[in-house]
Amino acid sequence: MPRRVDHAERRTEIAEALVRAAGRLGLHAVGMRDVAAEAGVSLRLVQYYFESKEKLLLFGLRHLTERFAQRVAARVAAAGADPGARAVIEALLAAALPVDAESRTFHHLYTSYAVLAVTDEALAAQPFIKDPDSAEDTVAGLLRQAAEQGELRPGVDPRAAAAGLLSLSAGLGTSVLVGQRSAESATGVLAHQLDLIFQPAK
Amino acid sequence: MPRRVDHAERRTEIAEALVRAAGRLGLHAVGMRDVAAEAGVSLRLVQYYFESKEKLLLFGLRHLTERFAQRVAARVAAAGADPGARAVIEALLAAALPVDAESRTFHHLYTSYAVLAVTDEALAAQPFIKDPDSAEDTVAGLLRQAAEQGELRPGVDPRAAAAGLLSLSAGLGTSVLVGQRSAESATGVLAHQLDLIFQPAK
DNA sequence: ATCTTCGTGATACGACCGTACCATGATGGT
DNA sequence: ACCATCATGGTACGGTCGTATCACGAAGAT
Question: What is the CATH number of the domain that holds B24?
Fold first, then answer.
């Protein structure tokens, strides 16, 4: 049956199996055999499409971040045409909160990768650390724009406020993930933070 | 030379070896043999004082959080007698930022444990999740007190602001840990956040 | 029609890990 | 003075993990 096969597609399927398995077992505990079983292929095939576990992990990380970026973009787009800056930011940050299974898995695995990156230089060199930076640029741009229209409270620095919002969202995500805080509570805290930044609606 | 030995002390020594080794290799990569070598004892002894790796890990977590709580308390105390609420909060949160080796290790390992807790129910049941809650209570109390003295900006909810500060601090810590943000930048963001909450100094 | 290359399977190998087992001085109680 | 117990060392065992090896059928190229 060995027809010619689309490697890129196959690699994507396996990467998604990795994400599913790692979401269930934890990234630290997932092995090549688990990924193979999850993808419904033999161990050999996982080796064939990714030469080593390290390559698989790296590809899985890229896949994970790309999927998530698409999700966030879709949520922002769903917020409607030209909503206010606050609405866009709220949609963006709310999409990142681990309130459903997909987002939970993302948070779980992204944090796992971040921890690994502390001691693994190959991961540390990976550009996945830059994704938050670009998100921060986006939010800072929105805030600057809002500031020009007088929508922000006095004394708010767009750059610092953007950094604060992103870090706040990340921290909230972790606390929701480990069950310390409920999703509703987290969105409430987020809204309160936006209240501190934006002028009250007139 | 087997004199009678203080078990509690020995266990603490080994737990500290665990923390050092895990800080260097990553919690996922540290084994009993690594801990033994780091502590300068034989593998057998680690087994002797902790019957299993799980017990060792659990004890290590407790030790880690206790040490860190002491550190934070010391920093707060060093802030001087009866400083303002803002100064206390700033000292508390700044002490938690991973700016030196000890705090970096704490953040690294605490996050590692948190990730493990997502898939390990023994860890999830551990009360280490409650530590942030008590910190939040402390900060909320300080904010409430400040609110009564009119030191907060109007519309600030002490509870939500406290939760926001803690989450912000945690998120900042992670970004500093992975090298996305500098320590100075993080303290700046933290200060800006406090500016959003507290009235400007008169 | 043959041959090379591709996709796939099964399985083996070496390393490491947590744990268990056996041995043995030293010590303190009586 | 003896003996049970404590602290410690050495080492072996079973399992798993990532990787490498061997094998083979099917398809496209020539």
Answer: 1.10.10.60
Is it the case that residue A82 has pLDDT exceeding 80?
A: yes
Residues with pLDDT less than 70, chain B: 1-3, 202
Residues A129 and A179 in one domain: yes
Q: Provide the residue range defining the domain that includes A146.
A: 57-197
Is B194 touching A (CB cutoff 8 A)? no
What local confidence, expressed as pLDDT, does residue B3 receive?
A: 62
Lowest mean pLDDT among A38-47, A57-66, B124-133: B124-133
The number of folded domains in chain B is 2
* Claim to verify: residue B91 and residue B131 sit in the same structural domain: yes
- Phi-psi category of B111—alpha, beta or left, where left has phi over 0 and alpha has psi -120 to 50? alpha
Protein A2 CA to nucleic acid C3 C1', in Å? 17
- B133/A196 touch (CB, cutoff 8 Å), yes or no: no
Q: Which nucleotide is nearest to A7 (CA to C1')?
A: C7
Q: Is the CB of residue B178 less than 8 Å away from at least one CB of chain A?
A: yes
Cα A174 from Cα B123, distance rounded (Å):
15
Instruction: Give the separation between CA A59 and CA B83, rounded to whole angstroms.
Output: 51
Q: What is the pLDDT of residues B185-200, one digit of tens each?
A: 999 999 999 999 999 9
Q: Which amino acid is at A185?
A: S
